[in-house]
Design a protein that fits this description.
561 residues, single chain, globular, 18 helices, six-stranded mixed sheet, 31% helix, 29% strand
Length: 561
């Protein structure tokens, strides 16, 4: 006889799904309901989060315009879009950073309409956000950071044994072998990111939001973090990830929602849609980008503009530790020179020590500009000698976030907008407006505070600041970190325009495709030393990584042009 029919759909929908325990004191519902009946399977997805018609307005700009988002339980859902598209704003609405009443629309979480007034309200529901800038206190222990504001014990009495005991359990879950009594300052950025995740789990997280979690990580640490998210997914965790690294998005996400200009464009499903980087980019920028790096017109490489000889730098605190070891290199006019290496190789330390000795101690070596030896003992002396350094830390060291675009743009060249000792405010505005148009910075007015801009637009203001200083040599340290492909392309075009005008560019980047796509020559750095030099045409990612690996084994190879 034929097998009996499956049970009615309403019967399945009203069954309570089985539970599974993921972490201590944390119970998560399985993401899908499975019912086997005579070889047949019915699968019903549960919508854990729905954001309906979310609209958020700031003075002069509509950041979100009727945005809709659906996230299924147990999936990894990616948010992508250009800088300023509204991704972080949407997550700030969800997490209660922007309280109920400051936006329009509804948040439906686990079948209930939520009105979060503080971040504590969303955390109480199990929604925990990890921001791009890690919220850890360097001189406190891992355990203290994990339970800051969520202390174990009674009023006015912290139970430290419970604090560190619980912290160690969560550290084990995320695969971090450090003791919870270790100070944050004594661990690397990759491990700090894991501490943030352990901190979220300690709050009984059911929905984990990660904003650019791998922006400051090397490839190995990034891969480990993504694999950890996949592990959590198998155990029932739901995650939302914001990232500009599209290869990582394709690797880890089940669905991708594209946001452009504050509106939802589309949602791609890994099981149904094209998940290629080219397809994602097309959704983000509204057009197909056939080339990630702009073609550079044939620029004649000129004379040597700067040469560094036998440069040595020691750590500012641990003064016996050498961080830059006898480095020598040169850069020509009209040339982009890349410096590639893993995190901790000493690239930033090298750049900052050259720029007015703004990093390090016991610095020795020679600097030649246009064939003449110069002394760059202060930042002002470096600027006076037409050298500029665009820092990797735009928010900490590059810009004054509480001040306007106008002021930040002219900060490195005050003499260019002043008559004697008096600032010409009309000229200051005109200069800022000129660079806003030239760099296509998205803002309602140059009077707007830099802190209200997206990361990519902040980076453009930082570039404008140093371009207005009219340098001959620019050191760009991670110039496209944390910004989208469209903004990256625009910055690459700016770099090409600079070298076409006879300027020299030294570009430090952790993204190998960027170094390979933009550099005329590449120096390879590892453990404070230059371990190789290759031409842009000959360079490959395999060659660069092999040089780094060999140098780590004590075999320093050099492949000259």
């Amino acid at each position: 006889p034929p097998p009996p029919p499956p049970p009615p759909l309403f019967f399945l929908m009203n069954r309570r799904p089985p539970r599974s325990t993921l972490f201590p004191n944390t119970t998560l519902f399985r993401s899908r309901l499975h019912e086997q009946w005579k070889g047949r399977e019915i699968e019903l997805a549960k919508i854990l989060l729905e954001m309906k018609n979310i609209t958020k307005t700031f003075p002069g700009v509509k950041a979100l315009d009727n945005v809709n988002l659906q996230v299924e339980e147990g999936e990894i859902h990616a948010l992508v879009g250009e800088n300023g598209a509204g991704k972080s704003t949407l997550m700030n609405v969800l997490s209660g950073i922007y309280p109920y009443g400051s936006y329009e629309g509804n948040i439906i979480y686990d079948g209930e309409i939520c009105k979060f007034n503080t971040i504590k309200d969303s955390e109480h529901k199990g929604i925990v956000i990890i921001h791009q800038e890690l919220a850890l206190i360097p001189y406190m222990t891992i355990g203290e950071n994990m339970y800051l504001g969520n202390e174990r014990g009674k009023s006015f009495s912290i139970n430290w044994n419970e604090t560190y005991g619980e912290a160690d359990k969560y550290l084990k879950i995320v695969g971090l072998e450090e003791s919870s009594r270790t100070l944050i300052k004594d661990i690397g950025v990759g491990k700090q990111q894991l501490v943030e995740i352990a901190k979220a789990l300690a709050k009984n997280a059911k929905l984990l939001i990660l904003d650019e979690p791998t922006a400051s990580l090397n490839e190995d640490d990034s891969k480990a973090l993504l694999d950890l998210l996949l592990k959590f997914k198998k155990q029932g965790m739901t995650s939302i990830i914001i990232s500009h690294k599209l290869n990582e998005i394709s690797y880890v996400a089940d669905k991708i929602t594209v946001i452009r200009d504050g509106s939802t464009i589309e949602t791609l499903d890994k099981n149904k849609d094209d998940f290629s980087e080219q397809r994602i980019i097309q959704g983000m920028v509204g057009r197909e980008m056939t080339d990630r790096f702009p073609k550079r017109p044939n620029v004649k490489i000129g004379d040597v503009s700067m040469e560094i000889k036998n440069w040595n730098v020691y750590h500012p605190l641990y003064t016996e530790r050498k961080v830059v070891n006898n480095v020598s290199f040169k850069v020509h006019k009209g040339e982009v020179v890349g410096i590639s290496g893993l995190m901790g190789a000493g690239r930033t330390e090298l750049a900052m020590s050259i720029f007015g000795k703004s990093y390090g101690t016991k610095i020795s070596g020679q600097v030649f500009m246009n064939g003449k030896e110069v002394k760059l003992n202060t930042v002002q002396e470096a600027i006076d000698n037409k050298l500029a350094y665009v820092t990797e830390d735009r928010k900490g060291n590059g810009l004054i976030l509480s001040k306007s675009i106008k002021m930040n743009t002219t900060l490195a060249n005050m003499s260019g907008i002043s008559n004697g000792k008096v600032i010409d405010t009309d000229k200051e505005y005109a200069v800022a407006e000129e660079y806003r148009k030239k760099l296509k910075t998205k803002c309602p007015t140059v009077e707007q505070n830099v802190g209200n801009l997206s990361g990519g637009n902040q980076q453009k203001v930082l570039l404008a600041k140093w371009m207005f200083a009219e340098p001959d040599i620019l050191i760009l340290d991670e110039p496209t970190r944390g910004i989208d492909v469209g903004a990256k392309y625009e910055i690459y075009c700016i770099i090409n325009d600079l070298v076409a005008a006879g300027k020299s560019v030294i570009m430090i980047s952790s993204e190998l495709p960027e170094v390979l796509g933009m550099s005329d020559r590449i120096y390879i750095m590892n453990e404070g030393r230059f371990v190789g030099e290759v031409s842009g045409e000959e360079a490959t990612s395999e060659l660069i990584m092999s040089r780094i690996v060999k140098s780590g084994k004590g075999e320093i190879g050099r492949a000259h042009v």
